[in-house]
User: Fold this.
Amino acid sequence: EDEIVRILRSKVYGKFSLADLSAELHYGTTHLCTFFREKTGKSIYQTYLKLKIDEAKYLLRDGSMSVSQISDHLGFSSPQYFSKRFSKLVKMPPRQYASSVREEWTTPD
Assistant:
């Protein structure tokens, strides 16, 4: 499972396929997916998406890229799809998240 996450993390700025992952690890796709879900309680895709969204959160906190640029940089098919996936996981749209974390950085104690 650690090896799978390591590979997924290395592909966070692009795309991956289960077939390629299976071939790289020399396991059948079904076996790999079942093993991963049994160990983590999540699918490989859910884990990959969370890694991408975590990276997006980091990039949004950094503030040097727009939502569109981040979407493109992380290999999402469109900024709208990225925003939809981000909103579902983070419970707020990317722009709102960016504003909220910037306020935390600039608010005095």
